[in-house]
Fold this protein.
Amino acid sequence: MNKLVLFDLDKTLLFGIAAHRKAFHEAFKEIYGVDTTIDIIDHQGMTDQQIIIRVLKKLRFSDSEIKPKLKECMRFMAEEFEKAAEQEKIVPLPGAKELLEELSKRNVLLGMVTGNLEPIAWCKLQKAGLNPYFRFGTFGSDAIERNTLVKIALKKAKEEFGFEFDGNNAFLLGDTPRDVVAGKTAGVKTIGIATGDFSTEELKEAGADFVLEDLKDTKKVLAVIFNERV
């Protein structure tokens, strides 16, 4: 495997966020005793851990109040998500499955770099029918900062699959400027996908090496990754 492609999940590969938002809401109530939502902060591209901490700090919780219950909060969230997700249709975005299928045929190592907690990420992939394509991932339960997740992913790829990163053979696809910044911080090539709430211009401004409107044109995405002509 001489290429590694890392994907963000929400609004990059798949869509279905109601159960996830509900899980946050229920966890804040149950574990920290506050009735709030994630919308009180700018959470786009943050990890779940980071969102929990930022929301609570916005509500003037101290570190000493947050940290002792953080792992319990994440466990509760994952349980609530699995219950809520039974009623939600989580679907792949147009072109996602076709792209993953083609990359798999070309023996590309596929991984996730997502802010989702690990159980939530795998559950979403399963419901969207995309889990068979992924060998590994790094998750919002592994680190608070997304930048750290990309570095952990490179380390895992080397240790578990023998992948040798040379600065040009690893790509990160994501729909937010925070995805782009995380990829650039780790030194991987970044592909901004404008399928979320950010435009192609905003992703370019964040420093993405490549920007695409969506994943519908499989040949176009492959051309970027393999330096091919369309």
Notes: The mean pLDDT is 96. The CA atoms of residues 13 and 96 lie 6 Å apart.
